[in-house]
Structures are given as C-alpha cells and as structure tokens.
C-alpha cells in the first residue's frame, strides 16, 4: 500500500502529464478516501467485529492495488484507483487491535516509527540508485537479462 503512495508522482505521471496540480488532486483524493475508510472501519468494527472488517479490508486493498497498473494512463481512472486502494488502508489497524493497545507501550510505538523511517530511507536509496543507473544509460538488470545483454 505504501509503495504506490510513496511513488504516486512516478506511477501516475502519464495520467497527470507531470502536472503538480493534478498530482496534488490525486493526493487530496487519497487523503479524503483514507479518512472515509477510517470512519467506516470504526463504524463497521463496532457492528461486525474486527476480524471480519480486517478481512474485507485486506481483500479491498488487494483489489485496489491490482487496479493501479490499469489506471496509470488516464487521470479519471487514476483518481478512482487512488481512492479505491487508500480506503482499505485501515486494514493495518487490525494489527494493533489484535495485540491490544494496552500491550503496546510508547517504546514499541516509537520503534515502529523508527522502523518505518528506516524503510522509507531504504526505499529512497534504492530509487536513487535506479535513477542514477538510468541516467547513465543502463537498463534495469531484469531488462538486460531479457534482452540478452
């Protein structure tokens, strides 16, 4: 879920035409969809139970992420795709609910935040390496294997 959101500008560049305004609109739709998803998750969890809601959210999130490659060429489709997969983001709350909030002290929450920061830095490093290799005219290693180079 976080990879498409992290690289939203690159993934949806064909749909936005490189426009910062269009990209901001995509992110706005994602934020609104996330807020709606969180509100719906609370309401549904109270009525149906956490296990059912998380199961449905994971299926919704998977379906939403499968739509992303199909929606990169048209702005309207990109808006729908971003809204679709971000609504299911509340599935992550099941992990916290499963352990019980009383079991999660501030140390564990801080550790999780630090781990996410390290993950983001690692992703940034990998992206930088890919961009640099492309700037030198190199292809991705998988593309080199397929082309016989």
Topology:
Elements: H1 2-6, H2 8-11, H3 13-16, H4 20-48, H5 50-67, H6 75-87, H7 93-99, H8 106-135, H9 141-147
Helix pairs in contact: 4-5, 4-6, 5-6
Briefly, what is this?
InterPro entries: MFS_trans_sf (IPR036259). The chain is mainly alpha-helical and 149 residues long. The chain has helices at 2-6, 8-11, 13-16, 20-48, 50-67, 75-87, 93-99, 106-135, 141-147.
Question: What does this protein structure show overall?
Answer:
The protein has 149 residues and is mainly alpha-helical. The chain folds into 2 domains: 98 residues, no CATH class; 45 residues. It contains 9 helices and no strands. Helix 4 packs antiparallel against helix 5, helix 4 runs parallel beside helix 6 and helix 5 packs antiparallel against helix 6. The chain is globular, with a radius of gyration of 18 Å. It starts with a helix and ends with a helix. 17% of the residues are buried.
